[in-house]
Amino acid sequence: MHDPLLNVAGDIIETAALKQVAPGVHWLRMPLPFQLDHINLWVLEDGDGCTLVDTGINREEVRAAWDALFAGPLSSRPVKRVIVTHFHPDHMGLAGWLTEKFNVDMWTTGAEWATASNLYVDGGTEHVARARDFYHAAGFGADLMAEVDKRQNPYPKRISPVPERFHKIEDGEIIEIDGKDWRVIVGTGHSPEHACLYRGEDHILISGDQILPKITPNVSVWPQFPEKNPLDLFLASLDKFRGLDPETLVLPSHNWPFHGLHERLDQLAHHHDERLDDVVRACAEPLNATQVLKHLFRRELDSHQLFFAIGESLAHLHYLIGQGRMVKETGPDGVDLFRAAS
Question: Which DSSP letter does residue 92 get?
Fold first, then answer.
């Protein structure tokens, strides 16, 4: 595989500074308050203005960084639209603020807008009760259930109000930006209807979180959709990218731009094959999802990581059930137990 840093001069991009990575395509990095401490955003030249792809999380330091850009490097390029790859707060977090600021539309897929809109208003006792039922079934004990109560619904705090009006985009649609065609390629599993953008003229792919160079995208089961099989969706959607040019420059939301798309697709699929085999071996005797988590994540997890990790554990278990390799039984205490099929 090619060196993933080969295509960008220097290993580090300064936070909130623009760096051109392809004709008319500029890389922008914003901070995140998590262990994964950054997100890559993209500014596309668009005639006398610009199109933004993703926005950063709703925090004061990110708003201040945008304001500095609009007063500086982007002062002569008004924002014409904001394209959001998916609903997660680091991607859609400031979409409402930016679209209101420039009186433009947010462009995203229907499922991402609907998920964001519903999650933004999903709070109070009903949300916590649903989450408690979900995590109890997953095997959380009293200490972890206290984390559920403390967590509540973090989404509204990390996102400005979801725009009530949006421009719906769909898989296969062509978006013309600065006279060049970008094709929407929808991936699934990481989020419901994740929009990637491909410029076939010079083989540039804005991959969002769907394809990352160093880490695997989080693929999780969440309380809102407790029976979902997102890993099946994710693995199937990888094939949608195999027809792209082998020398495609991939612009991901985390880490660095890279070449080697096809090799990375193979790595992502193989990674999950290995983890699925690990889960089957661990479940020779019945285990709950929290016990399975400890076989998949051997490092210490903070509270933020814990909820993603239990979601990933359930995603692997649900996939194995769908493949006939795992059986689920609910115990008298309401906790789900998973056993490898004989």
Answer: H
DSSP string across 205-273: EEEETTS-SSSPPP----TTSTT--HHHHHHHHHGGGTTS-TTPEEEESSS--BS-HHHHHHHHHHHHH
Nearest to 309 by CA among 293, 321, 289: 293
CATH homologous superfamily for 19-260?
A: Ribonuclease Z/Hydroxyacylglutathione hydrolase-like (3.60.15.10)
Question: What tokens were used for 186?
Answer: 């929808």
Distance between CA atoms of 82 and 186, rounded to whole angstroms?
17
Segment 224-280, tens digit of pLDDT: 999 999 999 999 999 999 999 999 999 999 999 999 999 999 999 999 999 999 999
Q: Are 318 and 231 in contact (CB under 8 A)?
A: yes
Measure the CA–CA gap between 319 and 145, rounded to whole angstroms: 25
Q: Is 68 helix (H, G, I), strand (E, B) or coil?
A: helix
Per-domain boundaries in the chain: 19-260
